[in-house]
Amino acid sequence: MRLFLEKGYGSTSVADVLRAARANSGSLYHFFPAKHDLLLAVLERYRSEIEPRLLAPAWRGVADPIERVFALLRVYRRLLVETGFFYGCPVGSLALEIHEPDPAVRRLLAANFERWAGAVRGCLREAGDRLPVDADPRELSLFVLAVMEGAVMQARTHRSLEAFDASVRRLRDYFRRLEKGARRPRLRPAPAAKEKIR
Known about the structure:
Layout: H1 2-7, H2 14-21, H3 25-31, H4 35-59, H5 65-82, H6 90-97, H7 103-127, H8 137-158, H9 162-183
Helix pairs in contact: 4-5, 4-7, 5-7, 5-8, 5-9, 6-7, 7-8, 8-9
């Protein structure tokens, strides 16, 4: 997992893996017949660790469901700063690097993104009537994910938090507007005029 994050899938050789794992080739090939199998295992591991390693720590002590979305973005911001803008979303990085993934890899990449979107969607559903009735939680969760991935990519590219912070500010403003719209009283249609009976 660490090597794929640091070097990318294509640039990580089997020799790199053996050296880092302090394992011999027989042991590696016993569990992973090819490097592709190692990639599948890494993607499975990422998916299983999203909640315990990222979501749970980010959301500890944050009761407000909408604030949980922004707590997650704060974790990504902190990781960018702590790593000198080296850190990126591992799944996003792999999805960009592997231009034509085979069906098994594509399914696991999609499953990872869906796990993220599902977590955000749960927060939005929990927010209930704070959001307008026509605010589709699925579409909103995909939008949040797109903001997160795009903001991280730009921060890494520019070695600056400017684009990241601007993206998060716009997202927060958007949520404020949604909440304001949900609080606005709805106008009831005027009753239809009764036809006079002649």
